[in-house]
Amino acid sequence: MAIQVLRSQTIEVEGYWYNPNIHPYTEYKNRLDTLKSYAEIINLPLTVNDVYGLRLFTKMEMEDLENRCLGCYDMRLRETALYAKKMGYDAFSTTLLISPYQKHEKLKALGEQLEKEIGIPFYYEDFRPFFREGQKQARELPLYMQKYCGCIFSEEERYLSKKIKTAE
Description:
Distance between the termini: 37 Å
CATH class: Alpha Beta
Order of helices and strands: HEHEHHHHH
Strand content: under 5%
């Protein structure tokens, strides 16, 4: 949905995949395959940085599990900003800005920090009002829809919360 919103503003969009945080590998593959299919459907140019990084990601996250989301955001947005600058794009952004489940203000602040640090503008827009419409569109296409954030720790939280609900 974020792509349609940007295109409606005559902003040319290109996709970039870098998600070494997604685990297990079957989830990583499902999400990547879905993105490739979706990119084809909507005619989105897509670059895939195909790094399945279980060891890289978990090593980084183990240093500060309580703040792991910020570390994950930084790793992924930094790579995206560096790629965008290298390729000569006008700006970089993230589809994470559509999710009501992400730490929105931290994402925005990080994007602004990376803009100053790397020297490429961060395009900010609050896409959260389009979240449900995007889900509806994904169901209609039909596209695979994720059931958790993506990291092994969020998958654990998903199962633990189900276990708690079942016990109640």
